[in-house]
Amino acid sequence: MKYMCLIYSPEMEMPGTSSPELEEAMNGYFALSQDSYKAGVLVRGDELASASTATTLRVRDGETVLSDGPFIETKEQLGGYYIFDVPNLDDAIKWAEKIPGARQGTIEIRPIVDHEG
Questions:
Q1: pLDDT in tens, the chain (117 residues)
Q2: Model pTM greater than 0.90?
Q3: Which of 8, 46, 95, 115 is the most exposed place for a label (fewest CB within 10 A)?
């Protein structure tokens, strides 16, 4: 079963800047990606660009409305995700606990619906 782990956390510093906290977090993400790949459970994981680059789309009464930025202003932003292919939720939780963003933010774990099988 595949589980998507959505990473919500306060936005980190802009790329190109450096701080001990940012470096530690990034090293944690790289290590998790490598460990989960070696374990054969990593399907995909990506960092998203800053929320300030987002475009929000809504279709109302057949009309497309676009706006810049995220739809909701919150302290925590969706910053990335991992997809793990594991037997059950307990195993997904074990991998999600290793996501550095869990230390200062929130990880939302959701099963991916398989329409083909």
A1: 999 999 998 876 545 556 888 888 889 999 999 999 999 999 999 999 888 888 888 899 999 999 887 666 667 888 999 999 999 999 999 999 999 999 889 999 999 999 987
A2: no
A3: 115
* DSSP H or E run through 106: strand 106-111
Phi, psi of 75 (to 5 degrees): -75, -30
Compute φ and ψ for 25, nearest 5 degrees. Answer: -65, -45
- Burial status of residue 92 (CB atoms within 10 A of its CB: 0-12, 13-18, 19 or more): buried
φ, ψ at 76 (rounded to 5°): -100, 135
Strand-pair partners of 19: none
Question: Is the domain covering 2-111 a CATH 3.30.70.1060 domain?
Answer: yes
